[in-house]
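Sample intake sheet
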Amino acid sequence: MPHPQNLDLSRIRAVTLDLDDTLWPIWPTIERAEAVLLAWMTEHAPATAALFKDTAALRAIRNQMVTLRPDLQHDLSALRRESIRMALTQAGDAPSLAEPAFDLFFAERQRVDLFADAHDALAFLSARYPVAAVSNGNADVHRVGIGQYFRHSLSAQAFGIAKPDARIFHAAAAALQVQPHEVLHVGDDATLDARGAMDAGMQAVWFNPAEHAWPYDTPPHATVSSLSELCRLLQA
C-alpha cells in the first residue's frame, strides 16, 4: 500500500540525492568489480587468488574488516583497500599490491548502469533546483558521468560522518545555501535516507521500487517506485 503523501512542494528550494540503489543498482556493479579484482589477483597475486577462490570469499573478508576496523565504517574505500591488504597478507603475497589492486577495483566500481530514467530525472531536477549528492558509498559523480547535474557531492568518506547522522544532511543544506527544512532528500534506504533526512528536519521521498514495507510509525513525505514518478510528483 502506498503511504499517504504529505509533501509540501512550496517548501522545496533544493534537492539532495542518494546515489547507490537510487540512481543505479549497486550490486551488479560491485559483483563485476570483484570479478575484475579476482582476475587481476590470478595474474599478480596468485597465492591470494588461490586462497580466496571466488568473489564471495573476497566479500566475506571485506565484511570481516567492518568488524575489525569500526573506525573505517564511514570510508568504504579504506575498508575495501584494507580488506585486500589483509587477504594478500594472509596468502603471503606482497601487501603493497593492495594499492594497485584497489585502484583497479575502484575504477570498475565507477562503471555503473544508471536506471533507464535517471538522466531524464537528473536533468529535470537540476533545471529546477540546486542538487547535491549525499552518499555513504564511494561513487564519484564525475567519474560516473553525471557530475553536470550536481552543485555539490558529499560522501561519508570525505565528510567523516555517515548517514543517518543529521550533520551530513545539514552540511549538504549549507553547501546548497538553504535551510534543512527547505531541502527534499530522495533515497532508497528507509533508515539512512528517509528517516535520517526527516530527523534532520528535511522532507523525504522514499525511493522504493521493490515495494518494501515502511518500517517506522511516521511515514515519509512521499514514496515513489521510479525516478520518473518522482518528477511527476514534483510537477503536481
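Comment: The CA atoms of residues 20 and 26 lie 5 Å apart. The chain has a mean pLDDT of 96.
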